[in-house]
């Protein structure tokens, strides 16, 4: 009688808990299956493991609630005396081991596939910076930065008065997307110029850390054209939440057209003569663009900074002071702070423009025009100095 | 301590007021200090969580700037881990271990005093960084370089505070080991020890093994930041990934430091309210020891996305999955203890049952996280946040709550208000699931952790989660009131307190007098809470 009761109540509990679990799964979101062979493998693996642990959970909880319902003092239950059962304990050691082996086999297979980055048809180097991404197409010789787009950036300021709901793809849109061809095996090389970031697009099925001094690799093969959005997944400082990743997959033909557009046209004119002198207007216009993309996250659009970590540039002693020192700080950064060494990531003309802009904006009226050559000569001087000091050290 | 058996302690002049608490070497008083301190830090860390959930209540930034948000997530973790959970377990150990093994006090009472009194200073230093010009640490509790090295001078205070916490923990651990190994009453053989004592013995060894590792890691951060070394600076020949390996060699055993004593508490409570001895006592002891051993060889499962050789990933995946076996054994044993018992459902039992269910959910999502390819998606998302809050809040914190209700009558001599206790339980259990369960969905849908603002597609579940968070926070104020009310009075508690209680701690009067077991009790199977044919 007792055993029959336990069985009936147990089955009822399984039914009730299954229904509740089904409801819990139905109202929530699930992992996207994605658009690459790997992402679909991961999705399947996720569903298999989720299914297994759900069944285990339902059985354990059903046993527990059966006991809670039947074996309570208020129902007159008398406590049994048993304190162990070797047979039961062997069963519930061996069965979980078998289940784990069953999960480990497909997991191992998928992982081996993921780790094999050979046979790539193209290579893209992704470099994380605080707080934007740089994409370098190694074969096609294209390089650009990709940062949070202006609409999201305006809306995400504290108490901006702009509703995030009115911004398209709030926080998940960039000023320049990473365009890639579909049906192409792409190797992605990841590194960082400052702190650790993590490049993640859920629809591609993986994230991988971008680490300074290290190059990580992973691969993808996108099967469906579309725009796939993700974010930096490793805490990288104050604007960690504001460095999205947007991948636009287009057909190989459209991709070739995009490549032609990037490498041809008017942009080349400037790049052909990177060290050419620029007039005040050109410097200020280009400088504002560079400033807004690379500097404004910390020093603010109006140069007011964020005390104490990010000094104001308006009226700043370095910005309004001697030019050589200003160039040094921007080119080499300030170690131990978030001020990066921009000499490693920007061209001399970009730095020159940004310097000109900051020295003549926000009420800083130095009137200085900084030319690419000024920046380059300062970089070379510093290198000479360090070579000399290195030579002196080795001579000792 | 040497002459306590020769003298009656009452005629020693007891310092009164504050001096009594500053100079006390009594394990019960120090236990109380630890528990009160832990409760205070639980409120402080909880307040930080409220700020986090308030900012995440809706998309857009409304209340705090991103920098301060990062300080809140970092400090919330440091305060909860080192200030709330760990001191609570040490407090419970101080109170209960001597009572459970029949010892008159802890083995090293003066060191006991010292290890507690370091803590308020450590946290004063840590919390003071919130008011410094360069602010509190904002690089996550893991303090990964190079990001953590971008902090200002307040970073030195953070590291000094962590050193102090480590020293305190190590001394506490030495004391617990010395007490358990040297001061058991005659007849209290190792396999007659209550499971709470066993789990703490193993936890103490974990602490001694890993706290120095943390101290080493943060000291290298200190010299990298202030003395131009390059342990973790790639440009100087160092390796930022090395920090992560060292940190998680500490960090993973740390996870078990925060859950093994919880296993012990639950293993005390379930037999009491099932009126049946613990099922599979010996296998529980071995399972605990296995988990502790495995905790040393799984650290890199926190680092699958960092990039490591295939063989490394596979090893750490398999080793992590193996932990499910001893953990499963524990859960099956608890269910079997309840099976065909004669259960009643006072507040400690309710919290213990909720622990078993909700910790199991956290454990099952842990199995999912072990699967490397799937972890490439889960890692650093709210799925992970949900997972570790299920094991730490509904795991560790619920076990501490259960233990507090279970032993409060022994500590105060009064029964707590059972009606309020049940309200606290149901309110907490419902709200904590509203708080953390939707975070699974958020993570799977693609929301990274540690972000102050999010895309509007995540708005609904964040809203629900925040509502759950506020409700859960409020419920804990009720807990504070229940404790205060119980200290001030109520129905008198008997020595046994609970109908089904067994064990030495229930043989002394309630409240437990300042000095107990001056004459060691004789222990046999009739007084122990556990009896196992194998033992």
Quick gist of this model?
The complex is a heterodimer of chains A (396) and B (535). Helix content of chain A is 45%, strand content 15%.
Strand order of the largest sheet of chain A: 3-2-1-5-8
Shape of chain B: globular
User: Biggest β-sheet of chain B: count, sense, barrel?
Assistant: none
- Which fold does the CATH topology of the largest domain in chain A refer to? Immunoglobulin-like
Q: Count all strands of chain B and give the number.
A: 0
Identify the CATH homologous superfamily of the largest domain in chain A: Cupredoxins -  blue copper proteins
Please estimate the helix content of chain A.
40-55%
**Percent in strands of chain A:** 5-15%
CATH architecture verdict of the largest domain in chain A = Sandwich
Number of helices, where a helix is a run of at least 4 consecutive DSSP H or I residues of chain B: 16
Class of secondary structure makeup of chain A = alpha+beta
Low-confidence stretches of chain B: 1-7
Q: Can you tell me the number of structural domains of chain A?
A: 3
Q: What are the secondary-structure elements of chain B, in order, as H or E?
A: HHHHHHHHHHHHHHHH
Major sheet size, sense and barrel closure of chain A: 5 strands, mixed
Termini separation of chain B = 33 Å
Radius of gyration of chain B, taken over Cα atoms and rounded to an integer in Å:
23 Å
Seen as an oligomer or otherwise, the chain set is heterodimer
State the shape of chain A: elongated
């Amino acid at each position: 009688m007792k055993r029959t009761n336990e069985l009936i109540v147990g089955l009822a509990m399984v039914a009730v808990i299954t229904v509740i679990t089904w409801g819990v799964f139905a109202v929530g979101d699930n992992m996207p299956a994605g658009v690459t062979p790997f992402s679909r493998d991961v999705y399947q693996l996720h569903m298999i493991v989720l299914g297994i642990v759900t069944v285990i959970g339902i059985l354990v909880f059903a046993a527990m609630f059966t006991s809670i319902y039947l074996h309570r003092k208020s129902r007159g239950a008398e406590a049994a005396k048993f304190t162990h059962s070797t047979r039961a304990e062997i069963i519930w050691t061996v069965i979980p081991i078998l289940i784990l082996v069953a999960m480990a086999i497909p997991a191992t297979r998928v992982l081996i596939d993921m780790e094999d980055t050979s046979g790539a048809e193209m290579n893209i180097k992704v470099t994380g910076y605080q707080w934007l991404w740089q994409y370098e197409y190694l074969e096609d010789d294209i390089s650009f930065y990709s940062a949070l787009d202006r609409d999201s950036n305006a809306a995400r300021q504290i108490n901006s008065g702009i509703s995030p709901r009115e911004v398209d793809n709030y926080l998940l849109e960039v000023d320049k997307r990473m365009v890639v061809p579909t049906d192409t095996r792409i190797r992605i090389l990841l590194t960082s110029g400052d702190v650790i970031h993590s490049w993640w697009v859920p629809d591609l099925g993986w994230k991988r850390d971008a680490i300074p001094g290290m190059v990580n690799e992973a691969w993808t093969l996108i099967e469906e054209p579309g725009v796939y959005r993700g974010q930096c997944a490793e805490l990288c400082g104050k604007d960690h939440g504001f460095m999205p990743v947007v991948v636009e997959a287009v057909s190989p033909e459209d991709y070739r057209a995009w490549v032609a557009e990037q490498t041809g046209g008017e942009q080349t004119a400037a790049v052909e003569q990177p060290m050419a002198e620029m007039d005040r207007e050109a410097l200020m216009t280009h400088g504002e663009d560079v400033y807004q993309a690379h500097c404004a996250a910390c020093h603010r659009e109006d140069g007011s900074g964020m005390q104490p970590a990010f000094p104001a540039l308006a009226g700043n002693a370095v910005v309004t002071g001697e030019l050589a020192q200003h160039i040094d700080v921007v080119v080499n950064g300030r170690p131990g702070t978030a001020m990066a060494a921009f000499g490693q990531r920007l061209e001399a003309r970009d730095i020159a423009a940004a310097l000109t802009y900051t020295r003549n904006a926000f009420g800083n009226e130095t009137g200085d025009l900084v030319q690419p050559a000024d920046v380059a000569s300062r970089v070379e001087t510093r290198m000479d100095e360090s070579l000399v000091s290195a030579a002196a050290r080795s001579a000792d | 301590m040497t002459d306590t058996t020769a003298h009656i302690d009452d005629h020693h002049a007891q310092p009164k007021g504050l001096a009594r608490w500053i100079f006390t070497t009594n394990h019960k008083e120090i236990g109380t200090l630890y528990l009160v301190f832990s409760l205070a830090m639980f409120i402080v860390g909880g307040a930080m969580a409220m700020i986090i959930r308030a900012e995440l209540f809706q998309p857009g930034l409304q209340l705090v700037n991103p920098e301060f948000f990062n300080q809140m997530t970092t400090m919330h973790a440091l305060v909860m881990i080192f200030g709330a959970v760990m001191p609570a377990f040490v407090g419970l150990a101080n109170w209960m271990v001597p009572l459970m093994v029949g010892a008159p006090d802890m083995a090293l009472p003066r060191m006991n005093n010292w290890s507690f009194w370091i803590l308020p200073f450590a946290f004063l230093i840590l919390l003071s960084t919130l008011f410094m010009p360069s602010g509190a640490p904002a690089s996550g509790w893991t303090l990964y370089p190079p990001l953590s090295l971008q902090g200002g001078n307040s970073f030195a205070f953070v590291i000094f505070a962590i050193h102090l916490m480590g020293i305190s923990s190590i001394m506490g651990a030495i004391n617990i080991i010395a007490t358990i190994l040297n001061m058991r009453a005659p007849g209290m053989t190792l396999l007659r020890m209550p499971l709470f004592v066993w789990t703490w013995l193993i936890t103490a060894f974990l602490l001694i093994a890993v706290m120095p590792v943390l101290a080493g890691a943060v000291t290298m951060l200190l010299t990298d930041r202030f003395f131009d070394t390059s342990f973790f600076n790639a440009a100087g020949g160092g390796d930022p990934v090395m920090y992560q390996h060292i940190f998680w060699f500490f960090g993973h055993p740390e996870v078990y430091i925060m859950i093994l004593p919880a296993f012990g508490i639950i293993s005390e409570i379930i037999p009491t309210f099932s009126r049946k001895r613990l099922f599979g006592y010996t296998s529980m002891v071995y399972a605990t020891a296995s988990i502790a051993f495995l905790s040393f060889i799984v650290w890199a499962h926190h680092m699958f996305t960092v990039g490591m050789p295939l063989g490394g990933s596979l090893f750490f995946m398999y080793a992590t999955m193996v932990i499910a076996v001893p953990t499963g054994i524990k859960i099956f044993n608890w269910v079997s203890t309840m099976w065909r018992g004669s259960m009643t459902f006072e507040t400690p039992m309710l919290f213990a049952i909720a622990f078993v269910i909700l910790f199991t959910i956290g454990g099952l999502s842990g199995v999912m996280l072990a699967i490397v390819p799937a972890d490439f998606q889960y890692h650093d998302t709210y799925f992970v946040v949900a997972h570790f809050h299920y094991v730490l809040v509904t795991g560790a914190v619920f076990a501490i709550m259960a233990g507090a209700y279970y032993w409060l009558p022994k500590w105060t001599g009064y029964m707590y208000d059972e009606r309020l206790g049940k309200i606290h339980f149901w309110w907490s259990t419902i709200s904590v699931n509203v708080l953390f369960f939707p975070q699974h969905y958020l993570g799977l849908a693609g929301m990274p952790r540690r972000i102050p603002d999010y895309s509007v597609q995540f708005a609904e579940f964040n809203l629900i989660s925040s509502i759950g968070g506020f409700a859960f926070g409020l419920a804990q104020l009720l807990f504070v009131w229940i404790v205060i009310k119980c200290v001030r009075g109520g129905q008198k508690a008997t020595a046994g307190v609970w109908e089904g209680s067994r064990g030495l701690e229930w043989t002394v009067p309630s409240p437990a007098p300042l000095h107990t077991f001056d004459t060691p009790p004789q222990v046999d199977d009739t007084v122990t809470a556990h009896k196992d044919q194998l033992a």
